[in-house]
Amino acid sequence: MPSISVKGREMPASPIRKLTPYADKAKQEGKHVYHLNIGQPDIETPQVMLDAIKNIDFKVWAYTPSEGTASYRHKLSGYYNQLGYNITPTDVLVTNGGSEAITIAMQACINPGEEIIIPEPFYANYNGFARSAGITIKPILSYMDSGFALPPIAAFEELITEKTKAIAICNPNNPTGYLYSREELEALRDLCLKHDLFLLSDEAYREFCYDDREFVSPMHLEGLEQHVIVLDTVSKRYSACGARLGCMITKNKDVWSAALKFAQARLSPPAVAQIAAEAAVDTPQSYFDSVKAEYTARRNALVAGLNDISGVYCPNPGGAFYVVARLPIDDADRFCQWMLEHFAYENQTVMMAPASGFYSTPGAGKDEVRLAYVLNINDLKKALICLEKGLAAYPGHTE
Known about the structure:
Elements: H1 6-10, H2 20-28, E1 32-35, H3 47-54, H4 70-82, E2 92-95, H5 97-109, E3 115-120, H6 125-133, E4 136-141, H7 153-159, E5 164-170, H8 182-195, E6 198-202, E7 228-233, E8 246-249, H9 253-265, H10 271-280, H11 285-307, E9 322-326, H12 332-341, E10 348-351, E11 353-354, E12 368-372, H13 377-393
Parallel strand pairs: 1-10, 3-4, 3-5, 5-6, 6-7
Antiparallel strand pairs: 2-8, 7-8, 9-12, 11-12
Helix pairs in contact: 3-10, 4-10, 5-6, 5-9, 11-13
């Protein structure tokens, strides 16, 4: 029988989705499963976006330009310029989701065999994207005790070699929710300029910054114009994960031109999603104010509830809608599976993402889980009760 490719064998499974068969079986057994494992918000998509889809009147569902429609790119550049990015539509490349923006950026900027440094824990699919591009991620540990702040620049310096081509960050961070400060980003800027590195900035959660904290993009910093590549998506901003529409932004014309060739190879981004997303740019600020208030309340409820459970510690994140918590358990992968297979409280259980899948360093995150506060507060509170009961019953409980 023919064998699969080396890439196929080495491609990592998603730690976010790998427990889905156990969740499905739990539901078949009649259990209610609280899904805190995945960043699928229950927030309603803006009506203006849905209306744009309902009002479509084209006669032919045609290809769009590989870089995205001119009208959408024009509208997008206006959105980003309100944020101070100072770009033009020709700096924008529309992609099939934020995931494709990341994969195209990696392939356009980094050669097979070269390296990218990423603070960990990081979005698990970066591993898969890098594997597909034939590049190596060099992880650099951030720590829960500092709230997962940016590691010291000296630690980055120790990892930089002649193979290092880029640094990537997610801000606010998935999975930790950490929001990088202006000082941290300025330190990264100086490092990238010193070593002539690209800086990939995944900004999928830009709209979700709490406690009046400032969001700073590398696009706001002088001197990085040829180094920064912003990666974005409509998935979280408008609670439109199924639209599968993102973009890559760069002022570096060599990078943009290279990225366009990869975009041409996959033909075009989706037409209907661009129509909807173009309309979504006009979403009123009141929508975002309401969403931010809701997520702030959920964060507060989840973090407080976690820290009230004996042996659990969870730092308070500044953005996104995730937390990473340390639990009194022997192994998070085993515990998360056990919660679905063997535990129920009042016929309910909780699905979480083991944090080990968000680390590349062996053994890191073994007693940590990522939880997404994408459910309403009442459901979050019920999930917390299930988690507390589950921890008390778990055979691998530690103190």
